[in-house]
Design brief:
Elements (H helix, E strand, L loop, with lengths): L1 H17 L9 E11 L3 E10 L3 E10 L6 E5 L6 E10 L10 E11 L6 E3 L3 E5 L7 E4 L3 E5 L4 H22 L7 E6 L2 H8 L9 E4 L4 E5 L10 H18 L8 H12 L4 H13 L17 H20 L1 H10 L6 H9 L3 H11 L49 H7 L9 H26 L4
Parallel strand pairs: 10-11, 11-13
Antiparallel strand pairs: 1-2, 2-5, 3-4, 3-6, 6-7, 6-8, 9-10, 12-13
Helix pairs in contact: 2-4, 4-5, 5-7, 6-7, 7-8, 8-9
Length: 456
């Protein structure tokens, strides 16, 4: 017992010796960190510090939203001993666009130039990247906060009511409890809205949910708050956030069609326009297989068809397997299951088979799959027919049963088919030994001649 304890302590000490330490001879003393963001440009991070020893490496650790760990950014500053201020700007312009309301936690780290195992870690600072283009009004409820810059208090109150009703209804359906409030930013003009979404956004999107930062961005002009479409659009996006709560896992996301299908099903049901779109696509042969809707939806006319198909597939689940099966399917993803594992456990068939069953339910014919195919079988010699093209290879010294790979009842035929033997098995080793002896003899003879002809 004592021996095992000693070995364990020694091993722990060895491992600790390999890890950079901040306990002794810290190379710096930190002041109060700062962070200032300007929307569309960047976030400026600063850190007052008194450096005690030469610094060999400066790092800024940035943890975005709910990431499992920080991104390590090496900063070019190598401050000399004394008081100074470290600085770094995180670019958020153009392709580096950052969604508003994203939380970033920053922490500076300095390594000693003399001993890289010694470092100093500064205090953590969390900053929220705000869309500062507008003067936002805010109203809060138990489950959501609504932010808007155009419209009166009644506008914000109605948006909040629609949001919280959608959260409660979907949470009750999926059996989850929402404990973290959701921020809903309402934009009044398309240019403002797409400026928040950033480059590459779909041009026909009116709302987007970002589950990792518990944020929803929506486009609702003030005069349209009473439009029936708004009563659909707001709940639709909030369903996505509850869906994430029920299915989130560190491995992969559920199929996109399942997420969007539930959002449409909850906010408006499987209505006439969607039914018509699916029926027409099934009749014309243009229905998209569900395995083509697991990720980003297509652009163009198929964009809306993708939503219609998604809610049709969810409706099929509810009609065929029951609402509890739908809930089980969605929640099983939280256990890290693959698509096939989740569908098999909840519905009794894998996702591909489910897609085929849904195609049959809507009266569609599955399209021929294009792509790589096995190479066609080449010509087979007549003697190989019936063997599947496989010929057995005899062991050394064993008789070859011939191309048919079947033993023959005629001993003479078997002998004819056997490979010619080249002699006894000992001939090859003997030849090798003779060759080695000749080489050794030649080398020794040369050495003797060299010794005889040398100086006396």
């Amino acid at each position: 017992m004592r021996k095992g304890l000693v070995v364990g302590v020694a091993t722990l000490a060895l491992l600790l010796g390999l890890v950079p330490s901040a306990l002794a001879a810290s190379p710096a003393t930190f002041g109060v960190p700062t962070a200032t963001s300007t929307y569309g440009e960047g976030i400026d991070f600063g850190q007052a510090v008194v450096v005690d020893v030469p610094v060999g490496r400066t790092e800024l650790l940035l943890t975005v939203a709910d990431a499992i760990g920080p991104e390590v950014v090496e900063v070019s500053d190598r401050p000399r001993p004394g008081a100074t201020t470290l600085s770094y700007t995180l670019d958020t312009s153009g392709p580096a666009h950052l969604i508003p309301n994203t939380r970033i936690t920053a922490q500076w780290r300095l390594f000693s130039a003399d001993d890289p195992t010694k470092f100093a870690l500064g205090p953590a600072l969390t900053v929220v990247y705000e869309d500062d283009r507008f003067a936002w009004q805010t109203v809060s409820g138990e489950l959501a906060r609504v932010h808007w810059y155009k419209g009166d208090a009644a506008f914000g109150a109605k948006a909040l009511r629609l949001a919280e009703d959608a959260i409660r209804e979907t949470a009750d359906l999926l059996g989850v409890i929402e404990t973290e409030s959701v921020d809903f930013f309402v934009y009044a003009h398309p240019d403002d809205f797409y400026g928040a979404l950033g480059p590459g956004a779909h041009e026909n999107v009116a709302g987007t949910a970002y589950a990792s930062i518990r944020t929803l961005l929506g486009l609702i002009p003030p005069g349209e708050i009473d439009d029936p479409l708004v009563a659909v659009r707001i709940p639709h996006e909030f369903v996505h956030l509850v869906f994430d709560t029920a299915s989130s896992n560190p491995y992969h996301r559920p199929p996109r069609w399942l997420n969007e299908g539930l959002a449409v099903y909850q906010s408006e049901g499987y209505a006439g326009p969607d039914r018509g779109a699916v029926k027409n696509a099934a009749r014309s042969g243009s229905l998209i297989p569900l395995d083509g809707l697991t990720g980003q939806f297509p652009n163009g006319r198929d964009f809306f068809l993708a939503y219609s198909e998604s809610v049709a597939a969810v409706d099929f689940i509810v009609r065929t397997y029951g609402p509890n099966a739908l809930v089980t399917l969605i929640r099983s993803y939280a256990d890290g299951r693959t698509d096939d594992e989740a569908f098999t456990d909840a519905l009794g068939l894998d996702m591909t088979t489910f897609g085929s069953a849904w195609f049959a339910d809507v009266g569609a014919t599955e399209p021929t799959k294009d792509g790589p195919r096995p190479a066609p079988r080449g010509p087979v010699p007549a003697a190989w027919e019936g063997t599947g093209g496989l010929i057995s290879t005899p062991a050394p010294g064993a008789a070859n049963p011939g191309p048919s790979a079947r033993p023959s009842s005629d001993a003479s035929t078997a002998n004819d088919a056997s490979p010619a033997r080249e002699g006894p098995d000992w001939l090859i080793p003997l030849a090798l030994l003779i060759g080695v002896a000749i080489v050794v003899g030649v080398i020794l003879g040369r050495r003797r001649r060299a010794s005889a002809g040398g100086p006396a």
